[in-house]
Amino acid sequence: MNNKNLSFWQLWNISFGFFGVQIAYSLQSANISRIFATLGADPHNLSYFWILPPLMGIIVQPIIGSMSDKTWCRFGRRIPYLFLGALIAVIVMCLLPNAGSFHFTFKSAMIFGVISLIFLDTSINMAMQPFKMLVGDMVNEKQKGLAYSIQSFLCNAGSLVGYLFPFFFTWIGISNTAAEGVIPDSVIYSFYIGAAILILCVIYTTLKVKEMPPKEYAEFHHIQENTGKKEKVNFVILLKNAPSTFWTVGVVQFFCWAAFMYMWTYTNGAIADTCWNTTNVQSAEYQEAGNWVGVLFAMQAIGSVLWAMVIPLFKSHKVAYVVSLLCGAAGFISTAFISNQYILFGSYFLIGFAWAAMLALPFTILTNSLSGSKYMGSYLGLFNGTICLPQIIAALAGGTLLKLVGGSQAYMLVIAGILLLLGIVAVFIIKENTSYRNAE
Q1: What domains can be seen in the chain, in order of their start residue?
Q2: Which residues fall within 8 angstroms of residue 282, CB to CB, at 6 or more apart?
Q3: Global pTM?
Q4: Which of 315, 317, 355, 431 is deepest in the core (most CB within 10 A)?
């Protein structure tokens, strides 16, 4: 085991840029359904737009992981990728919410929105993954639980800010309605401010964090330098030699991320129907419900921030996982039976418990099992498939499931709760270990 401990602020600096990245991600997750619905998309087709974020993630993150494993330059190993990703994200965040403002036809606005979303997803994934890798690179096994908890805290704090932006801008008087097919200014300004915060946070991390040079990295991770023939290792070989933890945690990930895909996709329509009694996307009530989605997601983030501080107190990762997902399932299922927008605070607070566990526990368990691996970045990139694939499958199935529940978007959140209950069952198959077979 590596014995070099980092100070709290060193751990904080490693992940601080994640605060800005998560603002961008939360603005996307809370507003994509709203944006495309406002542009004129059919509710039964909304889930298809949500295929793009995980699809880009499953393509981009393994590539970034593999490339950064091999990158050693004056600017670092992971940092060049997160900075470039953040820079592209800033540009796209200024374009995407204007999809309806360029006097395009309906078809052209949709195409512009989809292309912008592809670039935004690509850049956010490019910026996000290196932060997980930095923890794996620079933090010893003893401190990884704390490091990922700090990352989870910053992630949820960023979510809290991003989710509340449209509500805040509406509160100070910026218009929350617009002409048909045009995104309200409250959303557009939210993306602008989020972009500015993102680049500032990433600049802070790039200035404060100094990555280890190759020799120091090898010593820290007890990696034997290969002075002979260079190894040729591809993703297939890496997966073949992956520890059992990779696969068992991946099963839990499947159910969890499918559940949250339905939350992001259908919460806006669900609460507009149950609390505002409207399905008219052009109505002021629907846009008001859209702002309230941000408030509810902010409540989820608060629950997650607080629960992230509790998770390290559990002696067993499995017990922490089960309790967290059980609370999240209760939160999801209750949403379909609540018509008061304020009572929903309790539901989304509980959902935050599950989110905190999903952010911290899988990576703590996995990186401990990969101790000594020369392919930490590649494995974390491949592990992102356990996040992306379930979202893609859930998105593809979303339209069909929505028809099966009679078009009720609220019942899609009940399905999300059932998926978390299945995730609890899968927790019991997790095999934690610290052994790793290097791919030869």
Answers
A1: 8-221+233-427 (1.20.1250.20)
A2: 38, 180
A3: 0.72
A4: 355
